Amino acid sequence: METQKRKRTAVACHYCRRRKRKCDGRQPVCTLCEEANNSECEYPATEEHKRSIPVDQTSDILSRLQRLEQSFSHFASLPPTSHPQPDDHYTPTSHTYPPPSQNPSPESAFPSPGNGPLSVDPSLPFPSAAATPAAPPTEPCITAPMAIPMSHSTTTGSLLQSRAAKALLGDYPSDVFLRVESKRSLPEPLSLTPIPLSQIVFPDIDAEAASSLVDNFFDLVNPQHPILDRDDFEHIYRDVVGSPLQADLRSALVLVVLALGRAAVGTPDLTRDGWLPGVEMFTPALQVLLGMWFNSFGDSILLLQGLYLAALYYSYLSRPLQAWRLVHMASTSIQHYPIRHRSMRQPLEETHTHQPVTRLCWAIFVLECDIIAEHHLPRSGIDQVIENLPFPRCGNPPDPALLSWLADLSARRLLNRIHHVMYDTASPTNAPATAADATAADAFASVSAELSHQLGAWYDLLPSAIKPNLHNASGSPLSVDEAIMVLRYHAAGDIIFRPFLHQVCGMEGGAVVGEVVVENAKRCLGHCRGYLDVVEFRLKGSCGSLEIVLHSTLAVILLLTLASLSPVLAEAVPEIDALQIRAISLVEKWAFPGWSIESMLSILRTMRSKYQILY
């Protein structure tokens, strides 16, 4: 006998709906919210207040919701060892994927922020010690927060440690770039040494020039890091510029916004000793923020926004250690919010009041993860907050820029999942197997196929309004938002299939390589080439991910070069000379003396020189 479906009240508030509780619909605050949610009660907009949505957009939304529901049902019904085969739906040139409803992992597909267990066998060992990553973890690790492991092997330094890379380039320490950054001198204006607030010297602000810098910030910076609302900022800005600057958080926020507005349009000049665009505005802002952070234990959102933007400014200058220090400070401070605010012990997005905090948590998470994915630095714990934090709202109708940002957030989560499942080298249970272990190799291929399928599902579920074209070999222009999504896609695909490329390149002469391994290695090459095809559109100017993007550029061209030296893969990379030249031209623009980017350029030139001489 078919069970009758329970009807859901049309007037239930958001709080009751999320907890599947019966809402009495009392206005303005329902009984449950009055008792358990600090009297913060918000109802869905009634029909007459809803904005009209075009029919085609409505059908698109309903279609994606239906596919997500089908995905959940189908995925839950699969046995633990049921995996897609790596060559079921892929050819190296097509990058095609089956529809998400076939077998995606809905927790990793945009827009779902959840992080459920993976549909992989938890005991799978790794196929070859030459391939670098560790084996997929045991069951407790699969259900653990998807943080980047403290010890992982996806950094560019780890890639330089591979046998094939050593044969071509010589021996580099795995933390070579962190060593360079640690020894890099810090100009006095960028010093993190606090001074008394009374000794801070503020610059004179020209209203017309400042207005242009504010426009730069909201046009070029805030769309990728949307932690400020322009209307709210304009109120602060008018008050601050209308009177002498003070040693307070409002002035500091305005100044760091102006500094980023200058950095976003600054042109690097390698002939100068340093490149510090907007530093005359950044220095006093930094001193105020440091003084306030050390001497206060409140929870001003302005302080946390200022610290994050200051970290972002260091990222624009490609200073990852200083950026990490400040984003770590912002992170540990913002984690007080759920503790200090009773209403925020519930999901942080429950009210519009908490949206700035929700956005800032996500922004901090992404910036910190991007840094620690390349440099082994301590974590702040923000990933544990994110585990229980839904995505920020993106408006009604949705703002395309915010949708693109949400896509980036979900992509970062998927990248963390790949790090966690495939590259955690510290777990004692992840002992590598031998290359002769065919069963282990097949099992690991299934893990890669599952993660690749999740990546394909992430792309397929992107709203059509923001979905970029993945096939950009022709070099057709992409917007910055489109470039970011395509780069995330190819960066994830690269590390999913990189172990197979390592295995092929590390094979002794005459060794037999399995067909699946070769095909997966070619998939890695496809993602590497796709990354190079798009990266120039992200680096039209400086950006908050400058150093990380260039690290990935070095990694993909090194992988392509190693593949060109392999008898098995050489025919897949016939244009290696042109690819090397393109990568060098991208990196040398930012290779200031003493920067780790200068070291990247040196490695690239060494690679090309040895390749031309020896091969």
From TrEMBL:
PANTHER family in the cross-refs: ZN(II)2CYS6 TRANSCRIPTION FACTOR (EUROFUNG)-RELATED-RELATED
One example of a Gene Ontology biological process annotation: DNA-templated transcription
Alphabetized InterPro entries for the sequence: EcdB-like_regulator, XnlR_reg_dom, Zn2-C6_fun-type_DNA-bd_sf, Zn2Cys6_DnaBD
GO MF annotation terms: DNA binding; DNA-binding transcription factor activity, RNA polymerase II-specific; zinc ion binding
A Pfam family annotated for this UniProt entry: Zn_clus
Nucleus is among the record's keywords: yes
Organism in which the protein naturally occurs: Colletotrichum kahawae
Source superkingdom: Eukaryota
Protein name, as recorded: C6 finger domain-containing protein
Domain named Zn(2)-C6 fungal-type: residues: 12-43
Region described as Disordered: 75-145
The entry's keywords: Metal-binding, Nucleus
